[in-house]
Amino acid sequence: SAAEKGGYDYFMLKEIVEQPQALSDTLLGRVTTDGTLTLDEMRISPAELRELEKIVVIASGTSYHAGMIAKYAIEHWCRIPCEVEVASEFRYRDPILNRQTMVIAISQSGESMDTLMAVRHAREQRARVLAICNVNGSTIPRESDGVLYTHAGPEVGVAATKTFLTQLAACYLVGLYLAQARDLKYGDEIRAVVEQLASMPEYVERVIGTVDRVRDLARSLAEASTVLFLGRHVGYPVALEGALKLKELAYIHAEAFTAGELKHGPIALIEDGLPVVVVAPSREGRGVLHDKIVSNIQEIRARGARTIVVAEEGDEVIRPFADEIVEVPSVPTLLQPVVATVPLQVFACELALAKGNNVDKPRNLAKSVTVE
Ligand code: G6P
Q1: Which pLDDT band holds residue 186 (cuts at 50, 70, 90)?
Q2: What is the pTM of this model?
Q3: Ligand 1 and 86: CB distance under 6 A
Q4: Cα dihedral sign, 164-168-170-174
Q5: Is ipTM > 0.90 here?
Q6: Marked catalytic residue, from 54, 247, 361, 367
């Protein structure tokens, strides 16, 4: 009913707007004002965390994109090797696991069969398994050693939105907690990140307040048959997520590439008028990548692409090269996916609505896939 949808026509629209609340509920009680973290609920002790030699993240769909971002954060903050793999591939390649490995299984529903099978395999190999999950008491957390729940509330729309943003928050919490437990690099940078993490709900609120322009843009692209997405570093998983959303909701052919790979093939796809969404890296600490993406934008524009650039507020360097610019607040690089994903959710949702699609129940898809 309309009441259940909080006055919106679709659950997805409501769930996008609920993201600031979902984030603050997920951070509540876990981030303290002095910049330290409390995650005793995880049931994997700091002593165990200190013994770890490797982390492996497994997940499917949108949750896999959260896992890719977790890898960047964990390796940078904790200096532990971290692999990430789609759950359906994991156990079939005989992965190397032992007691010093922590497997992080990310699943919104806690019921995806591919992820559950990967969890069972990991436990048979004696790895410690930590679930990141949004549904209390679901199968994956019950079969794991520990769990960190996201508090997004029920998500009805088939395409994940608020559960994804809260998965990111949970991954950051785990990464920062690991850094704290291992007492590695837990210095000023980490403290600053913790502080910024606590401000994420406000930043996302701000992004939501500015997405009307994205809506107009999406409607103007309703006839597009292909949209490409480019990103680098943590902007790459964001690009993958933007492309996935567009496929799922608008049934448009969408593909994401790392901007550096462009010249090794995908640039051949660029033709006049082709929309290309570029997720620009933040300038903080990544000046080199920023320069490189500016030249990528120039290259594709010279070949006729219509460039839609998601960039930091006040990024005047990139502006002259963008046909359309979508600004997001400036935050530490590793946290940028939280703000940069939101306009891409709105973009896909609005484009799908312009085509007359039901965004809550896209064709051929299920909210949780309980077969392998
Ligand atoms: C299905 C859904 C996706 C979701 C994926 C993983 O394919 O349609 O939106 O990302 O499952 O779901 P999970 O519950 O494991 O996060």
Answers
A1: low
A2: 0.96
A3: no
A4: positive
A5: yes
A6: 367
